[in-house]
Design a protein that fits this description.
Shape: globular
Number of helices: 9
Strand content: under 5%
Structural class: mainly alpha
Helix content: 55-70%
Strand order of the largest sheet: 1-3-2
Number of domains: 1
Length: about 300
């Protein structure tokens, strides 16, 4: 009986720490670049219509508030036109990662804020903050890497996936609590806190995985659009130089800058030939990538 209890406890803990299945590669694609994987089935836990409605409402409200505060740049502003030109080159390549994306009502806007940030909501609603452009002095290639990364989150439906993960982690937390209680013979309420912590850390890990996926998918999108994927490396080098204090990776929802750079370097042999092809040359013949310096503080 004791062995059975021990086995049950270990199984439930394993369930908690592996609450979501890993994505499995699709059959080998005929094209080069980053291999396409299936969209996570966990995204189906959330209503696509509800997410779309919430995204549309929140984006509209954000633009309205920004406009009222004179923080929404007009359509004819050079930086708005620059960002939309980058998006115009990237969007034709989104179907490879999400067959529904070509039908999205894509939008690109620029908000006047010192935040070093950008995002793409479900449905293709993109916003950049001026802080990320000015504080990092982004080249077009680096801006494309940021945009590709944010678009990738929307294409891979990470918002819906996180909803599914949260629901599954909650169930796994309860199972782990019951397993610990059965093994140690104590009140289940006393084990809830430990099991809940494990579930939260599991979600954080999933988020780090989503960030890595967005980095690689973003590189692929940018390369196909004719932007140099090596800009992803200089982008995160700039990020690190502008903000040397980073949270410990284990308890962060984002990978460390060094970790991101390592993963992008590993994938570079896959995407650099894609970019080189858009330039009518080979990866070996490409000149070194040149970035722009950070502004002087």
């Amino acid at each position: 009986m004791k062995n059975l209890k021990r086995t049950a406890a270990f199984l439930t803990l394993a369930t908690c720490m592996q609450a979501a299945p890993a994505q499995q590669p699709l059959p080998r694609q005929p094209t080069d670049g980053i291999p396409v994987t299936k969209l996570s089935p966990l995204r189906l836990a959330a209503s696509a219509d509800q997410i779309e409605q919430q995204s549309s409402l929140q984006y509209t409200q954000l633009l309205q508030q920004a406009s009222q505060q004179n923080a929404l740049f007009p359509d004819n502003h050079p930086q708005v036109q620059r960002l939309r030109a980058i998006a115009k080159r990237i969007i034709p390549h989104v179907a490879r990662w999400n067959p529904e994306a070509p039908n999205w009502k894509w939008q690109v806007n620029l908000l006047n804020s010192d935040q070093v940030n950008a995002f793409c909501m479900p449905g293709g609603r993109i916003a950049f903050y001026t802080g990320i452009l000015t504080k990092l002095n982004l080249t077009d290639d680096e801006a494309a890497m940021v945009m590709g990364h944010e678009i990738a989150h929307a294409l891979r439906e990470h918002a819906a996936k996180r909803t599914g993960e949260s629901q599954l982690a909650s169930v796994a937390s309860k199972l782990a609590s019951l397993g610990l209680s059965a093994y140690f013979g104590i009140d289940p309420r006393l084990t809830d806190a430990a099991a809940g912590t494990a579930a939260k850390l599991t979600i954080l890990k999933f988020s780090r995985g989503e960030e890595t996926e967005a980095d690689l998918v973003g590189m692929d999108l940018a390369a196909r659009a004719g932007f140099d994927p090596r800009a992803g490396i200089t982008l995160w080098q700039k990020m690190g130089a502008s903000n040397s204090r980073r949270p410990i990776e284990f308890i962060s929802t984002h990978p460390s800058g060094e970790s991101r750079i390592n993963e992008m370097n590993k994938a570079m042999p896959l995407v650099l030939p894609v970019y080189a092809r858009t330039r009518g040359t080979t990866a070996a013949a490409l000149p070194p990538y040149r970035t722009t310096p950070l502004p002087k503080s």
